[in-house]
Structure formats: structure tokens, C-alpha cells
Amino acid sequence: MKFFDKNICESCGASILKLADFGTNEDGTVNTEFCHDCYQKGKFIDHGITLEQKIE
Ligand SMILES: [Zn+2]
To answer: What's the gap in Å between 18 CA and the centre of ligand 1?
Structure first.
């Protein structure tokens, strides 16, 4: 797991400043690509905008 001084959620673009702000994988480990608001327990939380829609 990498932990940089400044992490950006790849879904919403929010800054992730502390470990608790990271999302979590299904097995409970930290997911460093997405924030806790977007990704918890291996699943994206529905904000109305998914990553796939963002790509399109
Ligand atoms: Zn996010």
C-alpha cells in the first residue's frame, strides 16, 4: 500500500488526507484509489455519477 502526502480520489477528485478517508476493499483493507465517500467494502457508493459515466 502506498501512502503519499496527497492522494486524490480517482472517482470524485477529493483530496484524501488521512488513512480513514480512504475507501475500503471487500476484505476490509484500505483502497488507496478512492475515498471513503465513494468506495466502501469493495463497492462504489451511488452518488448519481459513476466512474464509468465519468469516463464517457
Ligand atoms: Zn471520492
So the answer is: 13
Which residues partner with 8 through β-bridges?
15
Spell out which residues have Cβ within 5 A of ligand 1, the ion: 9, 11-12, 14, 35, 38
Give 2-53 pLDDT, tens digit per residue: 555 678 999 999 999 899 999 999 999 999 999 999 999 999 997 665 556 6
Domain ranges across the chain: 7-45
Q: What letter represents residue 13's amino acid?
A: G
Q: Which amino acid is at 12?
A: C
On whether the CB atoms of residues 47 and 39 are closer than 8 A, the answer is no
Query: pTM of the entire structure?
Result: 0.70
Distance between Cα 15 and ligand 1 center (Å)? 8
